[in-house]
């Protein structure tokens, strides 16, 4: 098949799954430039498309080409203003460097695997990370780690809500380390990927290879460590991997959506190790920082973003930076296709499906869903009569937030928790208020949950 035929069949596969509207917005202008043995070079109209597709639809693109070509391939996306050959050349050089260093003539690792870099996104650096009061401490700690691997803040534990830049900071550390030492071995992996590797290694009796891969690096970067909860074998393997690296004074960096002591269904010995070094939090950004992030991203990609539109977006989007950047990407793509200048009116029209969430009334179902997801408990348990600590705290928090964020009476709140009386609800609210005054981390947890629930 020629490249045009391949893309037509892939396009049909994609449109069937995302619908005509999304296909027209994000996929219609893509073109296949070259198909190689294990790689497809795909051209997009501009850099906004490249970023958005890489962040949101790369898996779908991989599935489409695998379906049509009957084999798995790597997708290389580049903007129409870039040179395809340049993209391929740089990737080839990087891949060759990573595969060649630290292996003997048979291709097997030699002890501590030097020069191996896995999973690092080259786009995320300290230079393009916008700093503000909400993230400057975490950024400073990460920069110190990048400049002094294994010697400062080990482990470094970064926590904060979804979409606030934790992943950017972790990748920036990896890029900093490689920049300063080309022979450094760096691995970035999500907890889900690490779990899958553990399961696969156990199934195929290749645990020794897994241990060799993860226990002989200079720096291990683990994203979303909260997802290790309830995974007994993964926790056991990570515990020993952590110990092996720590004893060799190798750097460990972890990210999570909550501090170590709030991680449920994770062994105490692991939570203790997570707390051995420095714990740094990333807070939701203020309007000024959100505007700075928008202006920085727009400037990077040559998009003219009026300050009044930046302010409009910064005040309408909640605290999630990822959502904020996604809105800018969608707005810029629409303006690029239509030829219209970016205005507040255009932003309101293009992003009305995002902004309409602001008008959704807050109800008990939404509060319970968010609180239960955060604490890792079921709605059934939180409504039952169980009094164990893992259920009592989330129940009290949900009652407190329901009382604060809705017009429900004490009796109505109690009815949603198995018919509790108003005195029980008052007691729960008082307990939460006391803990907010005494525990700064708990106070931040309440703020985080409040931000998720309330626009």
Concise structural overview:
With 455 residues, the chain is an alpha/beta fold. It has helices spanning 3-18, 20-26, 47-56, 58-69, 84-100, 136-147, 166-180, 191-203, 207-214, 232-247, 268-274, 287-300, 307-316, 321-338, 344-350, 352-355, 364-375, 379-383, 389-405, 410-415, 422-438, 440-453, and strands at residues 31-35, 39-44, 74-79, 117-118, 156-160, 186-190, 219-223, 251-256, 278-282.
Write the layout of secondary structure elements.
Layout: H1 3-18, H2 20-26, E1 31-35, E2 39-44, H3 47-56, H4 58-69, E3 74-79, H5 84-100, E4 117-118, H6 136-147, E5 156-160, H7 166-180, E6 186-190, H8 191-203, H9 207-214, E7 219-223, H10 232-247, E8 251-256, H11 268-274, E9 278-282, H12 287-300, H13 307-316, H14 321-338, H15 344-350, H16 352-355, H17 364-375, H18 379-383, H19 389-405, H20 410-415, H21 422-438, H22 440-453
Parallel strand pairs: 2-3, 4-6, 5-8, 5-9, 6-7, 7-8
Antiparallel strand pairs: 1-2
Helix pairs in contact: 1-2, 1-4, 3-14, 6-7, 8-9, 12-13, 12-14, 17-19, 19-21, 21-22
Structural overview:
The protein has four domains: 3-89, DnaA, N-terminal domain (GMP Synthetase, Chain A, domain 3, 2-Layer Sandwich); 117-282, 3-Layer(aba) Sandwich (Rossmann fold); 288-356, Helicase, Ruva Protein, domain 3, CATH 1.10.8; 364-453, Chromosomal Replication Initiator Protein Dnaa, Chain: A, CATH 1.10.1750.10. A six-stranded parallel sheet has the order 4-6-7-8-5-9, sandwiched between helices. Strands 1-2-3 form a three-stranded mixed sheet, sandwiched between helices. Helix 6 runs parallel beside helix 7. With 455 residues, the protein is α/β, with parallel strands linked by helices. 56% of the residues lie in helices and 10% in strands. It has 22 helices and nine strands.
């Amino acid at each position: 098949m020629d490249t045009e035929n391949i893309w037509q069949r892939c396009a049909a596969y994609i449109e069937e799954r995302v619908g005509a509207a999304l296909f027209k917005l994000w996929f219609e202008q893509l073109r296949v430039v070259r198909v190689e043995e294990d790689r497809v070079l795909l051209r997009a109209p501009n850099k906004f498309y490249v970023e958005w597709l890489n962040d949101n639809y790369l898996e779908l693109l991989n599935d489409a080409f695998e379906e049509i070509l009957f084999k798995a391939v790597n997708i290389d996306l580049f903007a129409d203003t870039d040179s395809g050959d340049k993209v391929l050349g740089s990737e080839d050089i990087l891949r060759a460097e990573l595969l060649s260093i630290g292996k003997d003539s048979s291709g097997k690792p030699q002890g501590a695997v030097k020069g191996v870099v896995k999973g690092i996104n080259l786009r995320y650096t300290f230079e393009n990370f916008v700093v503000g009061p909400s993230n400057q401490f975490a950024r400073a700690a990460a920069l110190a780690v990048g400049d002094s691997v294994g010697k400062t803040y080990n482990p470094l534990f970064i926590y904060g809500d979804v979409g606030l830049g934790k992943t950017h900071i972790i990748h920036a550390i990896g890029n900093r380390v490689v920049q300063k030492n080309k022979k450094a071995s760096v691995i970035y992996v999500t907890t889900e990927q690490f779990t899958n590797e553990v399961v696969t290694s156990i199934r195929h009796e290749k645990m020794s290879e897994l241990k060799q891969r993860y226990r002989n690096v200079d720096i291990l970067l683990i994203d979303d460590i909260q997802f290790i909860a309830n995974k007994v074998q993964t926790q056991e393997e990570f515990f020993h991997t952590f110990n092996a690296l720590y004893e060799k004074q190798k750097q460990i960096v972890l990210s999570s959506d909550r501090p170590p002591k709030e991680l449920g269904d994770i062994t105490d010995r692991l939570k203790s190790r997570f707390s051995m070094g420095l714990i740094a939090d990333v807070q939701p950004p203020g309007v000024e920082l959100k505007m700075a992030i928008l202006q920085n991203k727009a400037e990077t990609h040559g998009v003219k973003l009026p300050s009044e539109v930046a302010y409009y977006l910064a005040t309408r989007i909640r605290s999630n930076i990822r959502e904020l950047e996604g809105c800018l990407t969608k707005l810029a793509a629409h303006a690029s296709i239509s030829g219209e200048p970016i205005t507040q009116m255009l932003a309101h029209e293009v992003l009305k499906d995002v902004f309409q969430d602001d008008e959704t009334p807050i109800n008990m179902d939404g509060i319970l869903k968010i609180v239960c997801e955060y604490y890792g408990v079921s709605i059934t348990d939180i409504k039952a009569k169980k009094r164990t600590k893992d259920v009592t705290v989330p129940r009290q928090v949900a009652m407190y937030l329901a009382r604060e964020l809705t017009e429900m009476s004490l009796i109505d709140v109690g009815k949603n928790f198995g018919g509790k009386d108003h005195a029980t609800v008052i007691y729960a609210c008082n307990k939460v208020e006391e803990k907010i005054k005494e525990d700064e981390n708990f106070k931040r947890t309440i703020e985080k949950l409040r931000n998720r629930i309330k626009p």
